[in-house]
Each structure stands twice: as C-alpha cells, then as structure tokens.
Amino acid sequence: ETGSALLTRAQREWVDMNHMMLQLRVPDRAQGPVSGHRRFLYSIVQHPAFDRTISVLIVLNAAAIALVHLGQPPRLTEALFWANYGFSAFFLLEALLKMCALGTRAYFAQRWNQFDFTLVLVSLVDLALDVAVVENLLFDPVVLRIFRVFRVLRVLRRFRKLTKLFKTLFLSAPALVNVGSLLLLLLVVYAIFGVQLFHSVRGTPEELRAGTPTNYEFVNEWANFESFGLALLTLFRCATGESWNGIMHDCYRTNAGLSILFFVSYFLLCNIFLLNLFIAVILENFTDVVEEYEAPVTPEHLAQFVEAWADFDKREGPRGAASYTMSSKHLSSLLMSMPPPLGLKGSEVNRAQVLRRVRELRVPDHHGVLHMQEVLYACLHRVCGIELSDREHNVHIASRVMRTFPTLVKLHETTPSENELKEASTFYAASYVQAAWRGFVVRDPTLDDPPSPQQRQVPGPAANACPGASKRLPSAAVGRMRVAPFQAAPCAAEGGWQAAAEPGASQTMMPAGGDRHIRSARGAAASSSDYRTMRPQAVTDDEFNDVPQRC
Question: Could you give the CA distance from residue 385 to residue 378 in angstroms, rounded to a whole number?
C-alpha cells in the first residue's frame, strides 16, 4: 500500500534516516536565572566538571556497596555505614543545587532528574529506617540501598559500545515479546500433555503418601509432572537443556514411545528453534544498530545537531518549551557549532566557504524564520540524500513530517505560495552586501566629493568607459541606495560609477566592476551588522571568493 517494496536499498535507508530524524526532540530549557545567587548556582551545575564529579561519586558508591560481604571486619562495617550517609548527603545536595539553580519545574521536566530524585527519596527512607530501627517490616531495608546501584546507568550512557547494546535490547523488545509469547504457549500446551501422560511416574498417590522410595534419579519431588505448576517448571528446565534426556529416561516407565516423542519434539521446538530465534532477533537488531553507527550520519551526529539547535531555538513560555524554529541569522552560527559531516566546527573555513555551504543547503526561509526539520533535512540530504519520486516522498516522508511538526504546518500557512518562499541564502547575501558596502563607505574618506552630472548618467551600450571615473558618490547618497532591485552592468574603468536598472525598477548607483561581486540580491530586507563578523551567503563560488578582498 505504501510502496515500500518498490524502494531500493539506498532509498529505504534514506527513508529510515528520515524516520529517525522525526523521532528527535529538542529538550525544554528554561531561561537562566537572573538573580545573583541563582545565577552562580546555575553556572556550577551546568559546568562539565560538576557532572564528572557526580559520575565519580556514583562509581564510588557502587564500589562501596560491592564491598559488603559475609564475615566482614567491624572496621569495614563502620566505614561503609558512614560512607552510606556521605553518599546520600552528596546526592541530596546535588538535587537541591539543581532545583535551586534551574527551578522546580525545569528540574522535574528532565527524566534523568526525576530518576535521581526518586533514588534520593529511597536513600532517605533507608536512612530513616536505619536510625529508627523499625521492627517487623515486610521487607529488608537493605533492599532500598541496592536501588542506588541503578545510578550507574547515568555513567554507562557515556560509553558508545554499551549504548549500542542497550539500544539493541530496546529495539529487540517488541520482537522478543512476540517470541516469548509463542514460547509460553508452547510450554502451556506441553505442560498439559505432560500432566496427562506422566503424572504417575513416581508412583500412585498412596505410594507417595507412604513415602515409598523410588529408583529415579531425575524425576523427584522438584521435577515431575504431578501438577500443572511443577510441569511448567520442569519443562522450563528442559528448555535450558538441563538433564532433559535423564527426565525422558525416567518417564519410560509409563510409555517409552510417547516419552521419546514428547521430549524430543519439545526439545527441537523449544530449544533449537524458539530459543535460537531469540538470538536471531537480537543479532538482527544489533546488525542494524551497527549499520546506523557506521552510516555517514550516525545517531551521535543527530544528537549533536539537537544539542546545537537547542542553543538557538526560540523558546516559548517560562519553562522554555522548544518551538523548533530559529532566526535565519543564526544559521551560519549553527553550522559552525556542529562538527562534520553536518556542520563545520573544527574545520578551517573562511567566510566564502561558509556562504557556499549555506547556499548548498537551500533551506526555506519563512520571513526570517527557519524550522528545525527543514534545516536538518537539508543537512542530511547534502551528506547522504537519495532522490525519491514526488509520490514516494509524500508517502514516506512529507506526510509524517506534517503530522509530527505542527509548527512547520503553521509556517507554511504563512507563506502558501511557492513564489513567496525564499531561501536562507537570500537573507545572507543581502545582509552581507549591505554590511560590506557600509563598511566600505565608512573606511573611504573620498566619498564626500559630489558626483558630476556625467557620473549620474547611465552609459549607453557603445560606451567603453565610465565617465568621471575619478569621482565617487557622496556619503549623503549612500543612505538612498538600495540593494534589492539592481542588476550590475560591467564597466571597464575601476572606481567609476554606472547603473543598470531591471525592467520596472528605479536606477541604482554602484561601483564599477561590482557585477563580479554581486549578481543578484532580491527580496532581502535584513538588518545589517559588521561585515567582518557575519557569515553570509552568495550566489556563485567566484563571486564569494573575491568579495572579502574587494570589500
């Protein structure tokens, strides 16, 4: 129905990459505190050294719990007793610092913080029961202390290979549930048959009550078919391969042929087929996970993109909910904050190369706003994109994107016409031209000379040079110059002035030879800034390579 069977392997991998992209979520991030003491605490808990310190304490806590053993010396018991109090105090202090720095709402908005706070409460209950010496409890208080070992999961997520294994188990869980259900059904059916066929192997009820000894080695009071529950346990033991043939030999007493058929068929179905099917499911998912991490764009790269995007996202509300949108002017900064292949962080690139990358992405611009899905899709398509037909793209990607990101639907409603939808490169091109021109005007003191009437005339097609090449446009006229509607015309004389207006557009003055730097800059009305700090975009490679030197 969806036509996925008609896709090639490369196309299916590209569709799977897009489905993985749709699962990404930008975490909520509240604004940093304004008050002095909270701002100081915020800087502490957000520092990488704080997280590393907590990780070391988690490892030490697990090691302290592992030191408990039978017959331990009194000094070790006392040391572990105080170590329990010390670690509980440290983890409680961590929770309090984060709640004070982030705020209660922002703290409990993160699942890892919820997990940590639950373990802190369990530790406090353990300490309270230890101090109060409550008797006649339904459980051993030591069990509460063991729960703190689960904090090790915070440390394990730092290791890439262990992350692969955990992800494999997570992806295998649905299939393992199905195989496990089939195995349970097989156990139930064979348990019912076993009770009917082999319930009297050890003897009659009268013989069992009289305690008549039997000569069976494997069929005993813990492994038999005298009840449905014991039959399930016995068959589960046989599924592991533990003495299944010995139990089969002991069941020869009732019927040798049925015993062989029963146990051999059960062992083949359960041990050889179903249990190996468990292994096959896990290995298949592990292969898929390994291929994901060996692909041009791995889950780690996607996580780096989300982390970088979170710094530029337009937050909504006091909780800092992600809107999945950002301003167009931050696109170059986003690229410079991500490592390759999605970004340019760590690469020695100049402004022209940054502009070229932005132009290659062709990210749609919604009146100065970019959406995360469109930016990430453009970055992925540049690295490993595969062309799909319009129908395949709509069925496998576009329809799911619109359902997943309602904010993208709203942006497209604001620009319903494709003619109105521009690319982010247009914004950067116009911004760069404006900033570069204003910097050029400020640095050139000769622009105060008024132009002659000949300088304002547009040379005809037969003109070989620009008259009045030694004069420049006055600075008073700079403010009246526009960037958007002009098209440059070549001029042989450097430093002269000429204009070539597009049909229906007013004439605009520009430096001679400017067509080498500016081919077109339409539909851009962006605020300018210092051109030396911007990472703009351009139209052709030759133009951008020459603009910084000219300006």
Answer: 9
CA distance 53 to 132: 32
Strands 422-423 and 364-365, sheet pairing? antiparallel
Contact 539, 520 (CB under 8 A): yes
Alpha helices in 268-423 (DSSP H): 275-294, 299-310, 331-336, 351-361, 372-384, 390-393, 399-404, 406-414
Supply the DSSP string of 527-546, one letter for each residue: PP--TTT-----SSHHHHHH
Three-state SS sequence of 65-91: HHCCCCCCCHHHHHHHHHHHHHHHHHH
Burial of residue 161 (number of CB atoms within 10 Å: 0-12, 13-18, 19+): exposed
- How confident is the model over 269-310, as pLDDT tens digits? 988 888 888 889 998 888 888 887 788 888 888 888 998 998
Using DSSP, state whether 243 is helix, strand or coil. Answer: coil
In this prediction the pTM is 0.57
**Which residue has tokens 């100049």?**
350
172 contact partners, CB below 8 Å, separation of at least 6: 281, 282, 285
Rg (CA), the chain: 36
Structure tokens at 332: 């170059």
> To which residue do tokens 């995360």 refer?
372
What b/e string do you get for 493-532 counting C-beta neighbours within 10 Å, with b at 16 or more?
beebbbbbeeeeeeebbbbbbbbebbeebeebebebeebe
Question: Tell me, what amino acid is at 138?
Answer: L
CA–CA dist 224, 218 (Å, integer): 9
**What totals of helices (H) and strands (E) does the chain contain, helices first?**
24, 6
Cα separation, 216 vs 201, in Å, equals: 9
The torsion angle over the Cα atoms of residues 410, 416, 421 and 427, rounded to 10 degrees, is -50
The per-residue pLDDT for range 207-229, each reduced to its tens digit, is 767 666 677 788 888 899 989 99
Distance CA 325, CA 363 (A): 13
Contact between 430 and 524 (Cβ < 8 Å): yes
Which residues are bridge partners to 325 per DSSP?
Answer: 371
To which residue do tokens 């749709």 refer? 22
* Nearest alpha carbon to residue 271 among 219, 218, 222, 235: 235
Helix residue spans in 240-274 (DSSP H): 244-250, 256-267
